[in-house]
Write the structure tokens for this entry.
Amino acid sequence: MKDIVSPVTIKASAGTGKTYQLVRYFLALLFRGEDPKKVLATTFTRKAASEIQERLFLILAQSLLENKSALDIAEKFQISVPKVSLEEALIRISTLQDRLSICT
């Protein structure tokens, strides 16, 4: 049984990095092996929700193209050591693109 993940709320003014923090948290959950279908990320605008999803794909795909590893991403975003590979994370998120709960 996996640990239960506590909900996180990020409250801040425009332009302070909320989207970055949500992406960072989603990456942390993804790399620790959590099922992306069971993660709910909400924001106030459709634009921000789309941006979160786009950034996730871009970070994973670009890192793979640049021959980086999951550990490189973990260091960059200051998250715990990954339990899944970069390739596995990208496959998991790509195959579930239409079922991710990133919304307003």
Q: What stands out?
A: The longest helix spans residues 46-65. The beta strands are 40-42, 101-103. The longest strand covers residues 40-42. The chain has a mean pLDDT of 86.
